[in-house]
Amino acid sequence: MLAAAAGNADSVAELTEQYRLMQLKRMLLRYGIRVVNISDMSMAKRLVRAIVGHPTQPSAAVIQDAMQVVSAYHHLTPHDVYTARLRQLAQWGRLTVSDVAEIAGALPPAEATAVVAELLAYLADVVEDHVVALPSVADVPEPARLAVLESEAAVAEVLKPIQAALALATYADEHKIPAALQGGAAPDEAVAWRWSAMQMLVAEFNVATTWATLRSAPGRRAVVTAFAMTPGADRAGRVAVDADRKPASAGASVRLQRLAKMLLIPQPELLALLAKSEAQLGRVRGTLERCQVHATAASGVT
């Protein structure tokens, strides 16, 4: 009788496994995957990417389906699914704070922190790869780096990972995920501002810089100095040369005020840096105007 019972248990386990594999293959058909060798362990991550990369299915549905793959391949973890889906949304340029909240918000705090931190590090690397691949602005002190984006396509490509990272960092700041785990320079720092600064530089000034450049005050000052050193007043250099120029009595432009705020540089110091750069380039008029605005801002007169 014991042998019969053991045999029945083995049969039930075998039938259960066959049913599970049948359900898995049926699910994969919805994603156009008709032939798959379940015993091939190298297929596991490719199957997850194919599922989470479905362009029209909602995140909840693809994550649920991808979890069936995790159950079939025991070397995978739910963490692989969450990060793969968030990464895919980032690559599409569709990652929002609500997407992060939907996925990370359903996880235990420690797991959510790990997922967000991993994605932020990945996106920082993506942005840096873009910037490094472009010609760097001359006269930018190391290790600061700055590049000018010469086309709308280049701007759009760099904005995608930055906007995705901003969504992640905003969620992280709102949910008190430590800045140190987000790559922050200080344990109590709010990190989203730095991604906002990167977004502003790209969207408004066609200039891309790296996460590392914005981590330090010298790096942020180098960003300002490089604006004036950038060839082409119609590109990044326009902020220091021609754009938004107003008489000194009118004060600094709104854009310069925002730039100073984003880079955590006092406005008088920012104007002084621009004036110095103009002087180095021999732009007498620009130097005088910046010095006048700098004096007005420093005295508090508007």
**Strand count:** 2
End-to-end distance: 97 Å
Percentage of residues in strands:
under 5%
The radius of gyration over CA amounts to 26 Å
Main structural class: mainly alpha
Give a written overview of the molecule:
The chain has 302 residues and is mainly alpha-helical. The protein has two domains: 43-106, no CATH class; 109-299, no CATH class. It is 64% helix and 2% strand. It has 13 helices and two strands, in the order ααααααβααβααααα. The chain has helices spanning 2-29, 44-52, 59-72, 78-92, 97-104, 109-133, 152-174, 192-205, 211-214, 217-229, 254-262, 267-280, 284-299; strands at residues 146-148, 207-209. The chain has a two-stranded antiparallel sheet. Helix 6 runs antiparallel to helix 7 (152-174). The longest helix is centred in the N-terminal third of the chain and has 28 residues, at 2-29. It is elongated, with a radius of gyration of 26 Å. The termini are far apart. The model is unreliable at 232-252 (pLDDT under 50).
Topology of this structure?
Elements: H1 2-29, H2 44-52, H3 59-72, H4 78-92, H5 97-104, H6 109-133, E1 146-148, H7 152-174, H8 192-205, E2 207-209, H9 211-214, H10 217-229, H11 254-262, H12 267-280, H13 284-299
Antiparallel strand pairs: 1-2
Helix pairs in contact: 1-3, 2-3, 2-4, 3-4, 4-6, 4-7, 5-7, 6-7, 7-8, 10-12, 12-13
